[in-house]
Each structure stands twice: as C-alpha cells, then as structure tokens.
Amino acid sequence: MISIITPVYNEEHSLIELHARIQKTLSKLNQQFEIIFVDNGSTDDSLKIIKKIGENNNNIKYLSLTKNVGHQGGIWAGINSTNNTIVIIDADLQQPPEIIEQFIKKWKAGFKIVKTKKINDKDSRWWKKFFSSIFYKLINKFTKLNLFEGQSDFCLIDSQVVKEIKNFSEKKSFLRGILNFTGFESCFIEYSVDKRKSGISKFSKNEYFSFALEGIFNYSRAPIILLFWFGFIISFLCLIYIVYLLIIYFFFKEISLPPGWITTSILLMFFGSINLVALSMLGQYILLLIEDNKKRPEYFIKEKNF
C-alpha cells in the first residue's frame, strides 16, 4: 500500500484534476494506494471538494487542521497519519502526478528514498530562483547534507524510513534535510515544473527565508564556528588599532585628542561589533532549543474521516 500525501491550502480549482491524474497513473500500475488530503486551514471550498471526491471512494482519506501550519507542517501531519510507504505531492499541479510511476519503479528496484530535481522551472519569481541557488550553495558548504539544487519535497519515502523519521524528537521543519541525514539508499528523478493551475503561490519571501535559516541552523555548527573566527579577526584588528592609538598617545604628544576618545573608541569597536553578531547567532540556536523543549503539538486536527 502506498499513501499519497497531499497538503492542501486554498486549492479548490486543482483538486479534481489532481485526483483524476493520480488515479489514472496508479490504476495502470495495478498498485494499491490511498490519497491522504491534508486540509491545511483552507478558507475556500477545498475541504468540501475533498469530501465530494471521497464519496463512495474508500481510498480517499482526509484530515482537516484547525489552522494553517505551513507547508512543512501539513506534510508532517500527513506523514504522522500513516505507516505505509508514502509519496508527497503538492496540490497545485506544478508537480506532475505522472512522475509517481517512475517513483514506484525506482522503489521496486530497491531505493528507500526517491527524490526529485526540478528542471525547466516555469515559476516566474526571479527572487525565488536567485535565493534558492544561494541557499543550496550555503547549506552544502556548512553542512554534510549534500542537498542538490532544485531538490524538492516531491518524493517517495519507504515505510522503513517513514518509521525512523517519525521517531525524531526534534521539531520537524526541514524534511529534505532529515531524509538526507538518514543515509538510506536514494536516487533522484528530474522533472519539469508546470505552471500553477490557478491562483498564486502561498509561500512568501519571509517563509522561504525562515525555511532556509531553519535548514542551516538545524544541521550545521558553521554559524558558531564562523562567529568564533569573525570575533577573533575583529579582536585582532582592534588590538592593532589599540596599539596605534597608544603610540599616538605616548609618542606623539603634539597630536591632540579629545579626553576619553581613545577609551571610548576602543570599547565601542571591540564590544559592539562582536556582541551584536554573537547575540543574534546564539539567539537562533537558543530559539531552536526552546522550541524543541516546549513539546507543543505542531498542529491540531479539526476533522478527519479515518
């Protein structure tokens, strides 16, 4: 049995076509499957349409969350609701359901994780492509995850891997990082990103930025190491400047400096530059620890049919 997990947020115009294409793809493979729609706090008629699709159809399941918990939250709500091998696919039809056939072939060949790599991305948002490129370069430089540019959450995950990742006690906010961290046998399939069926992307600039930061801070000590070396370099430069000021003070009496100017300059440069950077980076790690230790539920289910 394969569970198709589809997080849904205001996608009323694409759901019927999505279901039809998934049904057609898996039916010709003679593969048992179920579709788990995760209504992620939609404010349109998405849930009504999901219920209509599920009428007299036992392989259609849904759960409706009390509010929108972000794309990753919706995915994990679906993952936590099944122990089967899963396929994760967005509901906006930018990820072609027909690729699932290739997922299953790779899975039956022995791969535990089948990832995807975007090519020919038709998304018109230039800033997304620009910052995405920078993100993958940074995270691969600072971590050992070995993510590849264009990697997405459109993937197949074997039931063995599903069981393992569900045991992670940390706040799960970066699925592709977790999958690469496990080290299970994996491969990837390239696919062209289609245009949205309707509407606009619900992923804002702020959400992309937060997603990138969480990925880096969750899997890397590099910011702390960079902070150490940055502090060391700043301290060294300040030391040189301190020596320079002391030379002026003791050996060049003709140069008049305002009283207390040297002391004030040294203190402001040294402590100000280091403290601002140090506190911001340490704050990120402390925030992650606090969030993990709260043990709050990441979502609440308002309604489900299974």
Can you give a write-up of this model?
The chain is an alpha/beta fold. The protein folds into two domains: 2-219, Spore Coat Polysaccharide Biosynthesis Protein SpsA, Chain A, CATH 3.90.550; 222-294. Helix content is 50%, strand content 15%. The chain has an eight-stranded mixed beta sheet, with helices on both faces. Helix 5 (126-142) runs parallel beside helix 8. The longest helix has 34 residues, at 261-294. The protein is elongated and about 95 Å long. The mean pLDDT is 82.
State the shape.
Answer: elongated
Q: Would you report the number of β strands?
A: 8
Helix-residue proportion: 40-55%
Q: Any idea what the radius of gyration is?
A: 25 Å
What's the architecture of the largest domain, going by CATH? Answer: Alpha-Beta Complex
- Amount of beta strand: 5-15%
| SSE arrangement, N to C | EHEHEHEHEHEHHEHHHE
Instruction: Return the CATH class of the largest domain.
Output: Alpha Beta
Distance between the termini: 16 Å
